[in-house]
Structure formats: C-alpha cells, structure tokens
Amino acid sequence: MSAAATPDPLERWIKALRELITPGLYGAHLENSPLLDHPAVLARAGAGAPATARVRALIGVLEDAVENGLRFDDRTVARILLGFGEWSGRQVIDRHRAAAKCRDPHWSWENHYRKEPLKRDLRKIALALARSVPEQPAEPAPPAAAAVADAAPAAGAAAVAEAAALSGRLVRDLGRRRTAYPLDMSLHQLRTAGLLIGTRVVRYHERGRGGQELTLEPVLRGLREGRSALLLGEPGGGKSVALYDLVQQSLEAGLLPFPARARDRADLLGDPAWPGLKDLPGAVLFLDGLDEAAADGRDLADDLTAMLQSRPALVTSRLREYEHTLSPLLADPGFDEVYVVQPWRLDVDFTAFLGRLYGTRLLDDPKRLYAMVSERRDLCGLVERPLYARMLTFIGEQGAQDVDDRVTLYGEYLSKLARVAESSAGESAGEARALEIWQAAAWAAHSSGAMAGDTVILSDLIGALPADLGPQRVRRALDLILNVRTVRNREVGEFLHYSFFEHLVAAHVCDALLTRPDAESMHELFRRDLTREIRHHLVALLRSTPPPGLRERLAEAYRAARSRGTAPEVLAICNLLVYLLSRTVPHSEAVLRDMLARESDPFLSAALLWALCHQGARGIDRRFLGRLEEEPDFRALCRGYVLYYYGDIDRDEGPPYLDDPPYRPCTNTLRTIVNVFERSRSAQTISPLRLAIDLYTFLDVLLVRNPAVPEEGLERLEKFHGALQGEQIDATLWARLTEMMEMLRSR
Question: Taxonomically, which superkingdom (predicted)?
C-alpha cells in the first residue's frame, strides 16, 4: 500500500470535531459523538462510565486540550471554532468569519478557510487531544510524588504510589470546578491563564485592628512546617480559589496535597490510602467548606479532630457560620493559625482582574466597566467580593446599570447566563426556559431536603423536573449552572456557588407567592423552613417589584394556612408569612394588628408581636412586655425561639420551641447575639422597639441560666442598652431592661 493510501489515524476525530463547529461544544448533542470513545475521554471518565459521564469528561478533555495543549493563534482559533470563552453563544456565522480573519485578515470562510486551512486547525486540536491521553492506565502522580517517594522507605513504595494516585485524582477534581466568570473555564484553566488574583489575608485576632495584611506565603510555610490553619471568609470572598492556589503552591513546594469538600470527607476517610497518610512525608490535607457540613454536628467535630491529628491541614469556612455555629461545636479542633480573607480593592484587585481578562482577549474594553463601577458606591461595595466582581464583569456595563444590590446582581447575572444558554443551544425562546429549568432544579433539590452546597444525584434531579422541559435542553442548561462529576459511576452535581441555589429557590418562592397564594401552595412552599440567606433573597425580590395586592395575598395565605390548625408545619408556615408581611410590605401595621386580635395561639401571637415591634407600631412594646411579665410559659416560648434561631435548639423540636428547665446550654446564642446587637446599633432600618424586646429576651435567657458573661460582652451589652435610652420605647419596658442589666452586673 502506498504512503498516500495510508489512512490518517486522526481522521475519525477530525471529522467528529468538525461536527461540533455549527452548534458549538456546549450546544452540541454529544451523546452520540464518536469523541466519547476517544482514549483521553475514556481515561478521564473511568472504565465502564455511562455515556452521560463521558459527555462531561469530553467537555473537560476538550477544554484542557485547547487551553493547555495549544498556543497563541492556534488556541484562539480553536476557541472560536468550538465556541469557548467569549465565543460561547455567538452565532455560527460570526464564528466562521472570525476564524477565517484570525488566520488572514483578507480571508473569508467560504472562499479561503473552510477546506484545507480548517482541516489543519482541526488536526491541531486532534493532536492536542492525542497528547492529553495518559501514557499508562494508572492515574499520573502529581509533581510532588517523586519527592515524597524519595523520602519514603522502600517497603512503603506501594503505599506511596497509591497515595500519590489518590492525591492526583483529588487535585484534578478540585481543578475542574468552575466559578462565576469566565464560566467555561475551570479553576485549573483560570490559574494557567493567569486569571486568578492573589489572595490577601489577615490574622483573625488582628482583623479590624490595623492588622498586617499577608499573602498566602506564611500559610504555606506553616503547612510545610506541620502547622494547621483555618481560613475564614465571607460568601463569595475567594476561599475556594485561595485553597486551590495553595494546593498548587504545595505541589510546587514538594508536598503531596489531598483536597476534599468537608461534606465529602467520608470518601477520603474511607479510601484505602487514608490509613497510610499519617506516616507519609509531605502529605497535607485541604478541607473546603467546613460550614457546608455543619449539620453533621458531632460527627464533623470528631472527624475534623482526627484529621488534624493525622496531618497538617488547611480548612476553609464562611466566617459567620464558623463563629455562630461551628466554633462552639468544635471547641479546640487543633488549628495553629486562623486567617481571614481580605476583600478585593477596587483600584488594585478589580483593576488587575479586568486587565488580565483584557490581556487574554476575554474583555473588550475594561476602562468602561471600571469607570462605571468606580462612580457608584453600591457597585464599589459589590466588587469587594471576587464572586460579585466576576458576576459584574460577565453582565458588563449595560447589565450593571440595573444593579443596585446583590439580589439584583444575581437576577441580571442569571438572566444573561440564561440568554447565553438558549443562544448556544440554538433556541429562540429567549431566557425563560433556562431560568425555568434552574429554578425548578433548585426547588426540587430544596424540596428533597438539600441545603445550599449539598451534592445531588443528577439523575434524581432531572427526574424531578417537569417532563415537558425536554431531557437534552435540561442537561445543557444544568451543565452551565452545576459542577458535575462522577462518583462511583453516578453523576452528581452541586451549584457553581451555593448562593446561586439560594437565589433560585427564593425566585421560585417569589413567583409562586405572586401567582398561587392558596393554602395548598403555601403548604408546599413553606413546609420546609427557608434558611436565613434564602429569606434575605426573597425579601429583596419582593421589595424590588412589589406586586399590587401583596399585603392582601400574604394575609389571605396566612388565614388559609391557619385554618389547618396548629400542627408544627402550620405554625412554621404562618410564622414565615408573618415575617414576609412585616418586612416586604410597607404600612402593614393594620393588617398585622387585625391578625393579632384574631390569634389565639401563643407562638403565632409572639410572631405577630415581634413583627409589629419590627414595624415600630406605637404601644406594641408595652403590650408585648405585659405578656412576657405575666405569663411564664410565654416567656419560655420566646426564649426558646431565640435559642432555635441561633442554633441552640434543633429545628425539628418545633415549632413551638420552649426553653424549660433543665435549661440547655446557650453557647451559640451567647456567642452570636452580642455581635448582632453591636451591628444593630448602626442599623437605621431596625425599630428601637424590636431591639428593646430582643434585648429583654436575651437578658432573660442569661438570667434563668446565670452563665459567665465575658467582661467584654457585658460592656457591649451595656453600650447597646445605653444607646436605646431616649428612643420611643415604653417607659415601663425601659425600667425593666435597666433592672435586668443591674441583675446581670451583680452576678
């Protein structure tokens, strides 16, 4: 056979790549693509993986091959042809034109590019795919494996290899996670492209006191020296990105990192390689999202203590959740240092991010977006969190015109992302269907008991969605909003960020409240209590576009739900409706007073009294005080609700929640509420009447227990009490608060 007749081994893959050009990678129906049988895809998906897992693996393999296996114009052309980066969702005719012009400004697609030049570029992509095939079936060891192997005794060579394979797999899984923008790039790709901005931290005990800002270098140095660290931060503040950066730095330093989500720690603890990590030189643990596993309670505390005793570790958590919930639970888990991630600076970090996007051709004009943000205080505050900064960059200056807080930012971001999803799929229905899918998916997860950040089984989630949405459309839409991976041959996913889940659940509830305010709908919406974060999104959504008659709808929903009796589910539903009525509808005092006059249940009476105090209803604080002073059971009920709200009583115990002897510990409440009072002093929107009743209830919690109150906490309570003087608080209530403070001081 002549050389000319020898078949090109890449021809099959070139032909399959050509089929992806018109729809783009994210819009193509990949279930039947020959590329699912490519060795690189099979190696990543794992032996025997189902087609759905291989589809996800194919997307990841192609992304990595283009971003890491091609350079300069070859990479740019591949992005255009396959619809990556800024080309995602662009019309195919625009991509045809741009690919031809990238090779020669005078070329057109039809006359110059679509034959041999196109085949050459597709061949380059196919070669990059071929280079990404592992040289051997085993998982390639991370760079640190050789150094670790040199330090390990010869008898432990097999254990080292097993641990190195586990480390490599965990590092790659972490690197494949995505963030808000650029959405089609993984953490690994963002770091490779230089799009991750360096994280600054400050030691926890120095924050707010002019503490020295540090890079991640001292954190890494501590890990190398065997010390463990806790990294705290706000939601969307960059904790996971910092953890990934430290994982990569630890590899470069010759360590062997083992990253895992805190809620998935059982997979790591149950791996055959785990017992050997204790004696493995250079092994370091990275545990992300400790707050996401808070519901595990004592099991989490025991596991974390055991893990920190085994190896040095870096652990991340949301700041508020750690202070309020986890810190009392964990007591002294064994952290040597505690750091807090610092916010982005407009003129430094945000500017650097825009500049890097511009340098990689992902942003056309960074100056216009920067100018718009810098001129508005609300937007300047948003870009202090990297997640919000990335979301703002995605919607651009046009979308940012309608943003004035984080909730409207989520709305604009998800609306634009939905338009991209529909455009990429070639649909003409606009954004509605993608948003419908995302809201339905978030609601299905919430209804099943999932919390923000939980992993859900993808097949179960899709099966719970309306059948008329179409399985292919659903899968394409979910791939944009979920991080999907395969665990034990089952695809699981979690929302790119837990706040997306929270906003989408709130949006579903908001839509239902406005369209179906009947008893059955209320029962379905609120049979599972909404978390504080979801409530905040919901209140903001209802305030932003208050529909006519919302007050009447909520009141009618309360009456309809209340007609079902006083079972715990009914009380929870009614309590939430009272919360919404008092916070979303101005001038609802008359409605709330009428509801209170008709209410006989003590728990709901307390909820209504609190709501009226929140609205500053004249004389209601005196009425509330009268019941608290005259009815010991009512006081116990109010104390119990405070303990539930701050995590000292399990929500499954009520409602109602009662604080009866023998009194349980109030650790969470004690640690939390003093800080809440401190912040409330400057909160102009909170009625002094509400604050005074809150203080009464908290002091009552303390006085029935007689716990030791730190001197600093007592001073802050006294300042808060003093700040209420002169406000329009009932004189009898003020005198009673003064008496209670004296009793607390004398103990």
Answer: Bacteria
